Amino acid sequence: MRIAAMLFVAAIGAWLGIFLSGTVRAEVGPVETGLSLRPAWRGETVVDASPLGTLTFRTHDAPLRLRITLENIDQDRARALLEDPRLADRLPATIEDDLLAGVRMLVIRSLLCAGAGALLAVLMVYKRPKVALVGLLAASVALAATGVLAVVTFRPKSLVEPRYSGLIAAAPSLVGSAEAIVSRFESYRSQLTKLVTNVSKLYETASTLPVYEPDPKTIRVLHVSDIHINPIAWNVIRSLKTQFAVDLIIDTGDISDHGTRAENAFVDEIGGLDVPYVYVRGNHDSMTTERAVKRQKNAVVLDDQTRTVAGLKIYGLGDPRFTPDKSVPIDSDSSALARFARAHLPNVKKPDVVAVHDPDVGRGFSGTTPLVLAGHTHERKTTRLKTGTRMLVQGSTGGAGLRALEHAQPTPVQASVLYFDRETKRLQAWDDITLGGLGEQSVYIQRHVEANPQRMISPEPENAPTPSGPITGTPKPTAGSSLWHQGQSSPMLQGSPTEGDRES
What we know:
Elements: H1 2-19, E1 24-28, E2 31-39, E3 44-48, E4 54-57, E5 64-73, H2 75-83, H3 85-126, H4 129-152, E6 163-165, H5 171-175, H6 178-183, H7 185-206, E7 219-224, H8 232-243, E8 248-251, E9 277-279, H9 287-294, E10 299-301, E11 305-309, E12 312-316, H10 334-342, E13 353-355, H11 359-363, E14 371-374, E15 381-384, E16 390-393, E17 413-420, E18 427-435, E19 443-449, E20 471-473, E21 489-491
Parallel strand pairs: 3-5, 7-8, 8-9, 9-10, 12-13, 13-14, 14-16
Antiparallel strand pairs: 1-2, 2-5, 3-4, 4-6, 7-17, 11-12, 15-16, 17-18, 18-19, 20-21
Helix pairs in contact: 1-3, 1-4, 2-3, 2-7, 3-4
């Protein structure tokens, strides 16, 4: 029993030693990498290309995980490899040699740290050098057995069968299956050349981006809109949530397409996101849709309400229209929507963010908040209003759903990550992410930095002319019958619809 206890202590010390062994830096071809070895329940090799995603290979059965992190690219060396055919021909062998050298250094360091951990753990517990040496010997035997198991169970075929996650999940459709790559290496090499060129450009562009370094206290918000029951949006949202470590998600409406009960199952994905999901109703969302979202455990549905979520005070207002109801005429113009917003101004108590669906409604909250988030138009746009309020209009995170087929060019899939200072609650910067639409494969990330985060927000002048028009109470939008938000004073919309109101 005492021997078993000593072996257990030695094992714990060895694993702790491996955990503390750190990361080995190695240049693999033109890429600067970090290599680390950690205990794991199953053997695998993970290539981390954050924020694009990861590739996971089931390379062995030993309980060890080898993680290779791509940290930087030597642009001069990459350019030389691309321009000189002789260097390009030697690239596979160079990468193999560099990688083996890095892994060899990592294994040596991990073994030394594991041995030291086992020795110190047994010595601290039993305080007898001889027992500590026995523990070291036992740990050495166990580590040797683990290494032999890793070598014996190594599966070369696993290198052509990776599991993709994150944005890089589009890689198979970009370059074909891994087995096809092996059988048609020359074709793949031309694709690899393009990939390396594009990644080099990415790093070169990143070096010239406006400087903003989010600190651990930053509140990160993922802004999405106009999903239109496109399931691809959930893949994008999950990936961005993980890669950018967001604290909450704000959805500015049109998660549905027709607002029917049959579409309710689509919103069940919200419950698996594990972060607060703030939602305001769009003109394609019925009250049936809103109730389905509200049933999700992490959903925060706002309709003329204010809630503090993840440190941000957010006011949300659902869209007054329900476009799919063809039995009710939808006559709305920008001034009528602005009147609808102003009718709710008494309920707005200095929020950090206002979330609405239509930008015309958003303009009605100018001067009441530093930031208004909207969607509806399927075109991303940002405007700083005269009052100092910034309005961010999101594109379609669902690529406009089936509407993507209505235009010559597919509608891109768009979302943004917003960075707020936790103390001031002001927007500091935001990253706009754009993915190619239906049938396209591309990813663009653009950084914007707020020039004056602490600028004064001035209310609209009180003597500003107020648009005339009757204001009456009307029922809430439900699938099939109603148009307006019940219980709130809302203007009767008059005039012809704008381009953005026509089934957008």
